[in-house]
Task: inverse folding
């Protein structure tokens, strides 16, 4: 086989992916929203009409107006600006937590699927145990032992959500390791490390990619719930969850504090879900995740 | 059947063991362990509390001894005494809050299946119809709505604006003076919002799963056979297809339990329900380590029991499983 025919094969797979993806209007919509969210997060200082932490005691708990489109909170801070800055937290937590989960999942899944036998038994048993503990309880317990804060949250969410990825990677490895190209690599004397990471893993990446995109949605939800409970991102740093805490405390008098940050979470999670499902359908509609 | 159950029970033991090990290592993260110099600077950890922690977990002994001594007590459901001012045994505190959490979660589970199964079945039977498209869209929305936010919105709507439903606690102020019917309505009305919201979280996933199972089943040969021999469509769908499509959903029932139990932390906190979730939240805020570890372990055991029940249900409905 010549190099050029290999390349055209790759290009055509990408081409098929794009053609399918572009046809899926909901997926494109999700992708556009994700892009906008990135832009908003990066350009937050230029977009936000006010500083996120600027306290204004003369304009406390004001309903939405031209000056403050989303209203103000109990300290007179502009909700719109806080929601805009909150997008940074969501993005950071989503990507770092999912990054940790994906790397851990790939390592455990690959070891389990490639080596089989006792490595498989031990790792899969560990996965079962992790799945038996209510994740939210586990996260809360760990956070209670450490200090709440954005870094601890990212790490804890990551370390409690790798099990699904590990199972996916393991299943892919189980079927791929018997294929001819792996045998060929082994016959040529490639090391296990090389076979796992250079030969099998690239072929097992599509379900991992899909579950990572969907995982970001999950991580955003968990972060907002933790921050809402006051165990996540600590005020005064604005996160969508901790703005909602203030909303709950003022629920009888100021509905706007409770409404807008929730819409932001909803749109973000929806966008990642649509994007993830769209990518899955474009890679392989039969893929089950 | 009995051998199958015994096998499942035996399989639970290593998992249970693993759970205790993980729980045990989490407590090692707590400030106050001998190696943690920073604990001296941690104002949340009084010297007295640290001393009690050291004593209860035998922190001065080697780590495997610590674990074994802790395990010996956990087996007897002795999680030590709470750090809070009442200093009561952890198990007593958990026990009095367990029933309400189990009640709400069970009701939510019933609600999930009562709603999700018909939705899944009908949207599979009418695939690509308007109804199917609308439910699919609603499922996407359901996946994306943070349920604690929905809780706030419903509180604003039904509690603050319409005054239809109470938004906090389990009983109204004048509960004792109500008639029997009044008492029943009072309890029910306090449970409506929390149970609905607990259920909401699982609804989208399970109806989606039901739909894809049903789609798979109605393409099978035996469904064609059933139609070919002239059975009514109703009989084909509800007798031949539904039963087979339902089977995998039963296992999902077991798998959805950790999520439900985790969710009770949020809902019991929002609605002020004195259950295990609220106790857990308060303990986390007050760093009441013995209670945290106790609830973590109990929560995991409840999950295992739920999985076990789901397995039994699966085995009861599917003879093929029992034969294995």
Result:
């Amino acid at each position: 086989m010549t190099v050029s025919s290999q390349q055209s094969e790759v290009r055509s797979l990408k081409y098929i992916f794009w053609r399918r993806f572009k046809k899926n209007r909901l997926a494109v919509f999700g992708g556009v929203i994700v892009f906008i969210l990135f832009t908003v997060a990066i350009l937050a200082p230029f977009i936000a009409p006010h500083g996120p932490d600027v306290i204004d005691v003369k304009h406390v708990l004001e309903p939405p107006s031209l000056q403050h489109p989303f209203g103000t909170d109990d300290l007179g801070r502009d909700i719109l600006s806080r929601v805009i800055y909150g997008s940074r937290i969501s993005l950071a937590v989503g990507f770092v937590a999912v990054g940790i989960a994906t790397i851990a999942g790939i390592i455990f899944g690959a070891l389990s699927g490639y080596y089989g036998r006792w490595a498989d038994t031990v790792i899969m048993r560990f996965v079962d145990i992790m799945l038996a503990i209510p994740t939210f309880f586990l996260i809360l317990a760990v956070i209670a032992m450490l200090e709440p804060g954005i870094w601890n949250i990212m790490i804890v969410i990551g370390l409690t959500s790798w099990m699904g990825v590990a199972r996916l990677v393991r299943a892919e490895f189980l079927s791929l390791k018997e294929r001819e190209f792996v045998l060929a690599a082994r016959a040529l004397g490639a090391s296990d490390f090389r076979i796992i990471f250079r030969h099998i893993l690239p072929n097992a990446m599509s379900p991992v990619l899909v579950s990572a995109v969907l995982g970001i949605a999950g991580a955003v939800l968990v972060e907002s719930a933790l921050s809402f409970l006051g165990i996540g991102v600590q005020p005064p740093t604005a996160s969508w969850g901790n703005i909602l805490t203030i909303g709950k405390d003022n629920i009888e008098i100021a509905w706007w504090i409770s409404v807008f940050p929730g819409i932001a979470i909803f749109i973000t999670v929806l966008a990642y879900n649509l994007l993830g499902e769209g990518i899955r359908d474009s890679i392989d509609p039969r893929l089950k995740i | 059947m009995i051998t199958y159950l015994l096998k499942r029970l035996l399989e639970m033991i290593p998992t249970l063991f693993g759970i205790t090990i993980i729980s045990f290592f989490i407590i090692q993260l707590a400030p106050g362990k001998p190696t943690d110099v920073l604990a001296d600077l941690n104002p949340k950890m009084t010297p007295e509390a640290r001393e009690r922690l050291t004593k209860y977990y035998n922190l001065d002994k080697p780590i495997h001894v610590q674990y074994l001594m802790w395990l010996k007590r956990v087996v007897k459901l002795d999680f030590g005494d709470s750090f809070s001012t009442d200093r009561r045994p952890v198990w007593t505190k958990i026990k009095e809050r367990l029933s309400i959490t189990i009640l709400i979660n069970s009701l939510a589970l019933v609600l999930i299946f009562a709603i999700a199964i018909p939705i899944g079945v009908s949207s599979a039977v009418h695939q690509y119809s308007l109804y199917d498209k609308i439910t699919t869209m609603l499922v996407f929305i359901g996946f994306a709505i943070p349920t604690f936010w929905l809780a706030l919105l419903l509180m604003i709507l039904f509690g603050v604006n319409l005054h239809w439903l109470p938004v906090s606690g389990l009983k109204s102020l004048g509960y004792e003076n109500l008639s029997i019917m009044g008492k029943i309505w009072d309890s029910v009305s306090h449970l409506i919002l929390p149970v609905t919201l607990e259920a909401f979280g699982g609804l989208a996933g399970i109806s989606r799963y039901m739909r894809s199972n049903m789609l798979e089943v109605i393409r099978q040969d035996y469904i064609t056979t059933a139609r070919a021999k002239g059975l009514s469509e109703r009989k084909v769908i509800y007798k031949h297809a539904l039963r087979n499509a339902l089977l995998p959903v039963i296992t999902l029932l077991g798998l959805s339990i950790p999520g439900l139990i985790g969710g009770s932390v949020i809902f019991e906190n929002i609605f002020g329900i004195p259950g295990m979730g609220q106790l857990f939240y308060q303990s986390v805020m007050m760093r009441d380590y013995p209670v945290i570890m106790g609830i973590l372990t109990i929560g995991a055991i409840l999950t295992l029991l739920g999985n076990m029940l789901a397995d039994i249900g699966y085995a009861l409905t599917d003879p093929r499983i029992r034969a294995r």
Chain A has a mean pLDDT of 87. Chain A touches chain B through 45 residues (CB under 8 Å). The CA atoms of residues 144 and 231 of chain A lie 8 Å apart. Chain A has 13 helices and no strands.
